[in-house]
Design brief:
The chain is mainly α. Helix content is about 65%, strand content about 5%. The chain has 21 helices and three strands. It has a three-stranded antiparallel sheet. Helix 4 runs parallel beside helix 18. This is Acyltransferase. InterPro entries: Acyl_transf_3_dom. It holds the Pfam family Acyl_transf_3. Keywords: Acyltransferase, Membrane, Transferase, Transmembrane, Transmembrane helix. One of its GO terms (molecular function) is acyltransferase activity.
């Protein structure tokens, strides 16, 4: 892992925060998000067959087959080397976090206040989405839909949630990780790389795959740390990227990582950490050209719109795609129009994918246009937290939640996500996870805690979606 620490460019001393957003970073973050939505839409495979009414264990019920459509595709492994964008997403997230926190530190913002700000930015959107999932799964249950199909829908919708849980933890650790980076950048990155390799080695030696989930923290912290290097203007060369590719191939040859880089997500392996090095080097090499593209008016507008609703797109897209699939399934079952649901990987299925992706994208865009105001809503406590003069709103004068409540908010929010994932998206887990997310949002906000916690379970999603009075 130490090969990824470049030595050819000195670090600024002290690191100078950037005063403006980097349009190349914003453009690529938007492109990564588009790639994630597209891949998830492609993975959804639903078809009507003779089925197995007792096939809940295989994802079938009453003639319905639900599967990951790409798992049986011969080209999926090669496709994963191009389409696996999560390491780059975390690299660019680390860049944004470093520049944001450095700017706030110059105004005297404490580490816990920064984390509370991040939680108030990240969690309300998935809270509303979780409320919508609870409402949807409850409605499907009440109308008598086969329980295995309801469970399958809840699980499929929950699968992208791992990112939220990991991103919350990584964001909470940014103040400490950035301090370590500024004191000893090379040693910090090497230590994280060594931890990643140790986890992979212990997993391989013991045969206990569950040990690999420790790398949900170490791999993504390593990749986030690369974003701090990018913020300092120090990036790996293309030669270093070549060595990282060789490392990935070696890991796969040794059986330490799947050849499919999507399979390498669960649990994450050192191959993804090295992929982050490769993607950072390629991004740095193309940065000037990307900035030129990002300056084009149409691309700039699209990039700004996507980045302004990034958490909304990520939190809601799978719910929308599954709902759209259910609509097609119901239409096909009622009308007998099986051509609406071609068997995955057949010629008919591939020919229908452009139309399916376009339809799913329009549906996601329509939903995002309605619910994105949650993400774009100004934080009424931001002025007090950032050291700016408080406005007329009384709540801006409220003290920040403090370290204890902030830590509790991080653990509660990540715990709510973990509960949903461990329970494979069961309805009860979605409900409990929604309540935990609501408590986390309240913990991260200033003001008295107990009354708000009592109210947290009362229709979280409808409250979040309802228009707010001016000045509230």
């Amino acid at each position: 892992m130490t090969l990824v620490v470049p030595a050819h460019t000195p670090l600024p001393d002290p690191p100078q925060p950037r005063s403006r957003r980097d349009p190349a970073v914003d453009l690529v973050r938007a492109a990564c998000l588009i790639a994630v939505v597209t891949v998830h839409a492609l993975m959804v495979g639903v078809s009507l067959t003779s089925g197995d009414p007792a096939g809940a264990a295989t994802g079938t019920a009453g003639g319905v087959v639900i599967e990951n459509a790409l798992e049986s595709w011969g080209g999926f492994t090669v496709f994963s080397w191009v389409a696996q964008m999560m390491p780059l997403f975390f690299v660019l997230g680390g860049f944004a976090s470093a520049t944001h926190l450095r700017g706030l530190r110059r105004r005297g913002v404490r580490a816990d206040a920064y984390v509370a700000l991040r939680l108030r930015r990240l969690l309300p959107v998935p809270l509303a989405a979780a409320g919508a999932v609870v409402a949807g799964l409850t409605a499907l249950t009440l109308v008598g839909l086969d329980a295995s199909l309801v469970a399958e829908a809840g699980w499929r919708i929950s699968q992208p949630l791992w990112f939220l849980g990991v991103y919350v933890l990584c964001s909470a650790l940014v103040p400490a990780a950035l301090r370590l980076h500024e004191r000893a950048p090379g040693r910090t990155l090497a230590a994280l790389g060594a931890a990643v390799l140790c986890v992979d080695a212990l997993r391989a030696a013991s045969g206990v795959d569950a040990l690999g989930f420790a790398n949900l923290l170490f791999v993504w912290m390593f990749v986030q740390q690369l974003g701090f290097w990018l913020a300092d203007g120090r990036v790996p060369s293309l030669r270093t990227a070549g060595w990282a590719v060789a490392g990935i191939i070696a890991l796969m040859a040794l059986g330490a990582s799947p050849a499919n880089l999507f399979a390498a997500l669960n649990p994450p392996t050192a191959a993804l950490a090295l992929l982050g090095v490769v993607q950072l080097a390629l991004f740095a090499a193309a940065r000037d050209r990307l900035r030129a593209w990002a300056a084009l008016p149409g691309i700039a507008r699209a990039s700004n719109a996507i980045n302004g609703a990034a958490m909304t797109i990520y939190s809601w897209h799978m719910l929308v795609v599954i709902a759209l699939t259910g609509l097609l399934l119901a239409t096909g079952a009622l009308t007998g129009a099986t051509m609406l649901l071609p068997v995955p990987l057949t010629a008919e299925w591939w020919l229908s994918r452009p139309f399916w992706i376009a339809t799913a994208s329009l549906a996601v865009a329509a939903v995002v246009a309605v619910v994105a105001r949650i993400e774009r809503r100004p934080d009424p406590h931001r002025a007090a937290a950032s050291g700016a003069p408080a406005g007329a709103q009384n709540r801006e004068h409220a003290p920040q939640p403090g370290p204890f409540r902030t830590v509790a908010a991080v653990l509660t929010g990540a715990g709510g996500v973990l509960l949903i994932l461990v329970a494979t998206g069961a309805l009860w887990a979605w409900l409990a996870g929604m309540l935990l997310l609501a408590v986390a949002v309240r913990l991260a906000s200033p003001g008295p805690l107990a009354p708000a916690v009592i109210r947290a379970g009362r229709a979280a999603a409808p409250r979040a979606l309802a228009p707010r009075p001016q000045g509230s």
